Amino acid sequence: MRTIPSAILCCAVLLSLHAQAGDAGGTVVSVRGGALERQASEGWEALAEGQTVQMGERLRTGAGAVAVLEYPGVGRFVMGPASEIEMGRDPRDFDTAMNRGALWMQAQPATGGHAAISTPIAVAGVRGTAFSMVFGEGEQAVCACTCEGQVEVRATDGSLLTVPRGQYVAVDAGKAVPAATTSSAPLLAQTGGVFEFCHNCHEVSAEARLKPGWR
Description:
The chain is mainly β. The protein contains two helices and 19 strands. A ten-stranded mixed β-sheet has the order 5-2-7-8-1-11-14-15-18-19. The chain has a nine-stranded mixed β-sheet with strand order 4-3-6-9-10-12-13-16-17, with no helix packed on it.
Protein backbone atom coordinates (compact mmCIF):
# COMPACT_ATOMS: atom_id res chain seq x y z
CA MET A 1 0.00 0.00 0.00
CA ARG A 2 1.24 3.45 -0.86
CA THR A 3 2.03 5.60 2.17
CA ILE A 4 0.97 9.24 1.89
CA PRO A 5 3.13 11.59 3.99
CA SER A 6 1.15 13.41 6.65
CA ALA A 7 2.47 16.76 5.40
CA ILE A 8 0.66 16.11 2.14
CA LEU A 9 -2.60 15.51 3.93
CA CYS A 10 -2.71 19.01 5.39
CA CYS A 11 -4.37 20.46 2.28
CA ALA A 12 -7.94 19.52 1.45
CA VAL A 13 -10.52 20.91 -0.85
CA LEU A 14 -13.98 19.50 -1.01
CA LEU A 15 -15.95 19.84 -4.17
CA SER A 16 -19.68 19.06 -4.25
CA LEU A 17 -21.53 19.09 -7.58
CA HIS A 18 -25.23 18.65 -8.29
CA ALA A 19 -25.75 18.91 -12.04
CA GLN A 20 -28.81 20.91 -12.85
CA ALA A 21 -29.28 23.76 -15.28
CA GLY A 22 -26.61 26.13 -14.05
CA ASP A 23 -26.66 29.78 -13.15
CA ALA A 24 -23.57 31.85 -13.85
CA GLY A 25 -23.14 33.03 -10.29
CA GLY A 26 -22.57 31.47 -6.91
CA THR A 27 -22.30 32.57 -3.29
CA VAL A 28 -19.71 32.25 -0.54
CA VAL A 29 -21.59 30.33 2.15
CA SER A 30 -18.89 30.44 4.81
CA VAL A 31 -15.18 31.05 5.42
CA ARG A 32 -13.40 29.87 8.56
CA GLY A 33 -9.83 29.58 9.79
CA GLY A 34 -8.32 32.10 7.38
CA ALA A 35 -8.82 33.83 4.04
CA LEU A 36 -10.62 33.01 0.81
CA GLU A 37 -9.45 35.11 -2.14
CA ARG A 38 -10.16 35.45 -5.84
CA GLN A 39 -7.85 36.65 -8.57
CA ALA A 40 -8.68 40.14 -9.78
CA SER A 41 -7.14 42.59 -12.24
CA GLU A 42 -4.94 44.10 -9.53
CA GLY A 43 -3.98 40.89 -7.74
CA TRP A 44 -5.89 38.83 -5.18
CA GLU A 45 -8.88 40.21 -3.29
CA ALA A 46 -10.53 38.83 -0.17
CA LEU A 47 -14.00 37.29 -0.26
CA ALA A 48 -16.43 37.18 2.64
CA GLU A 49 -19.58 35.25 3.49
CA GLY A 50 -22.49 36.30 1.28
CA GLN A 51 -20.39 37.63 -1.60
CA THR A 52 -20.95 36.50 -5.18
CA VAL A 53 -18.53 34.28 -7.10
CA GLN A 54 -18.69 33.37 -10.78
CA MET A 55 -17.95 30.28 -12.87
CA GLY A 56 -14.45 30.33 -14.28
CA GLU A 57 -12.99 32.31 -11.38
CA ARG A 58 -9.62 31.45 -9.86
CA LEU A 59 -9.92 31.05 -6.08
CA ARG A 60 -7.48 30.25 -3.29
CA THR A 61 -7.55 29.66 0.45
CA GLY A 62 -5.02 30.49 3.14
CA ALA A 63 -2.93 27.96 5.01
CA GLY A 64 -5.62 27.23 7.62
CA ALA A 65 -8.78 28.25 5.78
CA VAL A 66 -11.85 26.26 4.76
CA ALA A 67 -14.44 27.92 2.52
CA VAL A 68 -17.85 26.72 1.34
CA LEU A 69 -19.22 27.93 -2.01
CA GLU A 70 -22.72 27.35 -3.40
CA TYR A 71 -23.46 27.54 -7.14
CA PRO A 72 -27.22 27.28 -7.76
CA GLY A 73 -27.92 24.73 -10.46
CA VAL A 74 -24.40 23.30 -10.22
CA GLY A 75 -23.57 22.45 -6.63
CA ARG A 76 -21.50 23.10 -3.53
CA PHE A 77 -17.75 23.43 -3.23
CA VAL A 78 -15.85 23.25 0.04
CA MET A 79 -12.26 24.42 -0.31
CA GLY A 80 -9.77 23.36 2.32
CA PRO A 81 -6.47 24.87 3.44
CA ALA A 82 -3.74 26.06 1.07
CA SER A 83 -5.66 25.23 -2.11
CA GLU A 84 -6.04 26.95 -5.44
CA ILE A 85 -8.62 26.07 -8.09
CA GLU A 86 -10.13 27.49 -11.26
CA MET A 87 -13.87 26.87 -11.28
CA GLY A 88 -15.52 25.09 -14.19
CA ARG A 89 -17.30 27.15 -16.82
CA ASP A 90 -19.94 24.82 -18.30
CA PRO A 91 -22.46 23.21 -15.90
CA ARG A 92 -22.97 20.26 -18.28
CA ASP A 93 -19.23 19.63 -18.73
CA PHE A 94 -17.92 21.01 -15.47
CA ASP A 95 -14.14 20.68 -15.54
CA THR A 96 -12.49 22.32 -12.53
CA ALA A 97 -8.71 22.79 -12.59
CA MET A 98 -6.82 22.03 -9.38
CA ASN A 99 -3.52 23.88 -9.24
CA ARG A 100 -2.71 22.83 -5.67
CA GLY A 101 -4.53 21.29 -2.74
CA ALA A 102 -7.42 18.89 -3.19
CA LEU A 103 -11.03 18.71 -4.28
CA TRP A 104 -13.81 16.68 -2.73
CA MET A 105 -16.50 16.10 -5.33
CA GLN A 106 -20.07 14.90 -5.08
CA ALA A 107 -21.32 14.75 -8.64
CA GLN A 108 -24.77 14.07 -10.07
CA PRO A 109 -24.50 15.14 -13.70
CA ALA A 110 -27.64 15.33 -15.80
CA THR A 111 -28.05 12.71 -18.51
CA GLY A 112 -25.07 13.09 -20.82
CA GLY A 113 -23.36 15.47 -18.41
CA HIS A 114 -19.84 15.20 -17.07
CA ALA A 115 -17.83 16.53 -14.14
CA ALA A 116 -14.06 16.39 -13.78
CA ILE A 117 -11.13 17.53 -11.69
CA SER A 118 -8.09 18.27 -13.83
CA THR A 119 -4.49 18.39 -12.62
CA PRO A 120 -1.20 18.43 -14.58
CA ILE A 121 -0.70 14.77 -13.61
CA ALA A 122 -4.14 13.18 -14.08
CA VAL A 123 -7.82 13.89 -14.61
CA ALA A 124 -10.57 12.38 -12.43
CA GLY A 125 -13.93 12.39 -14.20
CA VAL A 126 -17.42 11.08 -13.58
CA ARG A 127 -20.64 10.40 -15.45
CA GLY A 128 -23.50 9.61 -13.16
CA THR A 129 -23.63 9.86 -9.39
CA ALA A 130 -20.27 9.76 -7.63
CA PHE A 131 -18.62 11.19 -4.55
CA SER A 132 -14.86 11.53 -4.52
CA MET A 133 -11.92 13.53 -3.26
CA VAL A 134 -8.79 14.34 -5.26
CA PHE A 135 -5.72 15.73 -3.53
CA GLY A 136 -2.25 16.59 -4.75
CA GLU A 137 1.21 15.65 -3.52
CA GLY A 138 2.86 18.82 -4.81
CA GLU A 139 4.11 18.23 -8.34
CA GLN A 140 4.99 14.59 -7.67
CA ALA A 141 1.66 12.76 -7.58
CA VAL A 142 -2.09 13.11 -7.37
CA CYS A 143 -4.52 10.85 -5.51
CA ALA A 144 -8.22 10.13 -6.04
CA CYS A 145 -10.36 8.58 -3.30
CA THR A 146 -13.94 7.46 -4.02
CA CYS A 147 -16.61 7.40 -1.31
CA GLU A 148 -19.71 6.66 -3.41
CA GLY A 149 -20.18 5.56 -7.02
CA GLN A 150 -17.05 5.36 -9.15
CA VAL A 151 -14.52 7.77 -10.61
CA GLU A 152 -12.48 7.35 -13.78
CA VAL A 153 -8.85 8.46 -13.44
CA ARG A 154 -6.80 9.10 -16.58
CA ALA A 155 -3.06 9.86 -16.59
CA THR A 156 -1.34 12.08 -19.16
CA ASP A 157 -0.20 8.99 -21.12
CA GLY A 158 -3.85 8.00 -21.63
CA SER A 159 -3.82 5.08 -19.20
CA LEU A 160 -7.09 4.69 -17.34
CA LEU A 161 -8.35 3.18 -14.08
CA THR A 162 -11.81 3.11 -12.53
CA VAL A 163 -11.76 3.81 -8.78
CA PRO A 164 -14.81 2.26 -7.05
CA ARG A 165 -16.33 3.05 -3.68
CA GLY A 166 -13.99 2.68 -0.72
CA GLN A 167 -10.84 2.69 -2.86
CA TYR A 168 -8.16 5.18 -3.84
CA VAL A 169 -5.34 5.43 -6.36
CA ALA A 170 -2.13 7.47 -6.41
CA VAL A 171 -0.75 8.50 -9.81
CA ASP A 172 2.90 9.55 -10.01
CA ALA A 173 3.89 12.40 -12.33
CA GLY A 174 4.81 11.19 -15.81
CA LYS A 175 3.72 7.61 -15.15
CA ALA A 176 0.76 5.42 -16.02
CA VAL A 177 -2.01 4.84 -13.51
CA PRO A 178 -1.38 1.79 -11.28
CA ALA A 179 -2.84 -1.55 -12.24
CA ALA A 180 -5.14 -1.66 -9.20
CA THR A 181 -6.70 0.53 -6.52
CA THR A 182 -6.10 0.43 -2.74
CA SER A 183 -8.56 0.47 0.16
CA SER A 184 -9.07 3.94 1.62
CA ALA A 185 -10.22 2.65 5.04
CA PRO A 186 -6.69 2.72 6.57
CA LEU A 187 -6.36 6.36 5.50
CA LEU A 188 -9.68 7.24 7.07
CA ALA A 189 -8.47 5.63 10.28
CA GLN A 190 -5.51 8.02 10.45
CA THR A 191 -5.71 11.27 12.39
CA GLY A 192 -4.65 14.69 11.17
CA GLY A 193 -4.59 16.36 7.78
CA VAL A 194 -7.15 15.73 5.09
CA PHE A 195 -8.79 12.79 6.77
CA GLU A 196 -9.32 14.61 10.04
CA PHE A 197 -11.72 16.78 8.05
CA CYS A 198 -13.22 13.67 6.47
CA HIS A 199 -14.14 12.40 9.92
CA ASN A 200 -16.74 15.17 10.05
CA CYS A 201 -18.80 13.27 7.51
CA HIS A 202 -17.42 9.70 7.44
CA GLU A 203 -17.64 6.74 9.70
CA VAL A 204 -14.36 4.87 9.90
CA SER A 205 -15.21 1.49 8.45
CA ALA A 206 -14.12 -0.92 5.75
CA GLU A 207 -16.79 0.58 3.50
CA ALA A 208 -15.90 4.20 4.28
CA ARG A 209 -19.55 4.96 5.04
CA LEU A 210 -20.95 8.48 5.17
CA LYS A 211 -22.49 9.58 8.46
CA PRO A 212 -26.24 10.19 8.47
CA GLY A 213 -26.90 13.87 7.86
CA TRP A 214 -23.29 14.52 6.72
CA ARG A 215 -24.35 17.59 4.71
